[in-house]
Structures are given as structure tokens and as C-alpha cells.
Amino acid sequence: MKYWIVGLLVLICLAAWQSHFLVTSAKGTEERMARTELQPQKEYRGVMYVGGPGESDPPGGLLLIRDQKALDNFVARIPTREITPTSPAPPSDDPLLSHPSVNFQRSMMVVAYSGSMLTEVDISRTGAENGAVVVSVQRQDCGYFSSVPVGIGCYHAVILEKTDGPVREEAPSS
Asked: What pTM was estimated for this model as a whole?
């Protein structure tokens, strides 16, 4: 008789735990579903100057470009010549150097960058959540080389529909 009561109590506890788990999971799903995906209108990839004279290379970050002046400042950080061991280096074919037009009344640009040419950058997803732009950025090391230019990093830029909120980075979901 005692074992029957103990078994019944265990089943009641399991049922209570499972219902709590299901409610918690449903709330998490609702919060994740509140995110609206933002589809990039255009994408650009290339290399850029990072850091400054005498500074160490930053690990990487995000730039939010909402006007032409900010875009011009970003384009000024793109090398006009390819980063190559040949001398003289050929001109860069980066499309942003041709100053493409961006309608900043309806669009904005988000740039993810790395602090080294040995770290590739990929914006895998963009979305809007609670008034903020959420950017999933993956940074992957390409390996080790004995000679790498200092102060040059990689970038991935996307043009998105304009929002007024802040931008935040998150690790991509597996």
C-alpha cells in the first residue's frame, strides 16, 4: 500500500514539472516569434582599415550607418588598392568605393567587421525585436599565416529597411 502512494506522488510531481516545463517553453517560443525578419536589400563584402596608428586591432564590432556622412566615413576606411604582396598593388574592386546611392530616408546600412584579415565575417540573419535591430554575426578564423597586414580587417555590410531603434549583435543560433 505504501509503494502505491509513493508511486502516485511521483506521478503527480512529474505531471506538475511537465506542465511547468511546457508553459515555460511556450513563453520562450512566443518571445522568439516576436522577432520580425529583415531581408537585406543589398550586401557588400571586403576589407577595411581597423584601429588607428599605434592602437592594437579591435576584435571586431558593428557599425550602424543611417546617413550619407556616416557612409562616407565608412568608405574612407576601405583601402583603394588591393591588399596583396605584389608591388604596385592593383586598384581595389570594392563596389563601395564607387559610392553607390543609398536612400537613407527608407534604408540604413549595418556593417559587421573583424579586427584581422584572418577572421571572416558573415551576417547570417537580421531581424527587428522590441524596437532594436538584431544582427546574427559569425566570425570564423581562417587559419594562421606568418605574415598578415596589421590594421586591416574584413567586413560584411547589408542594407536594410530603416528602423529608429538601436542595433545589437547576437551569436548565430546553431
From this structure: 0.74
Provide the 3-class DSSP secondary structure of residue 74: helix
Reference 42, options 102, 94, 92; nearest CA is 102
Could you give phi then psi for residue 118, rounded to 5 degrees? Answer: -85, 5
Nearest residue to 46 via CA among 86, 71, 82, 99: 82
A 10 A CB-CB count for 138 gives: 14
Q: For the segment 125-163, what is each residue's pLDDT rounded down to a tens digit?
A: 998 888 888 999 998 887 666 667 778 889 999 999 998
Residues 89 and 86: their CA atoms lie apart, in Å, by: 5
Q: Is 157 helix (H, G, I), strand (E, B) or coil?
A: strand
State the Cα–Cα distance between residues 84 and 90, nearest whole angstrom: 8
Q: Which residue has the cell 584579415?
A: 117
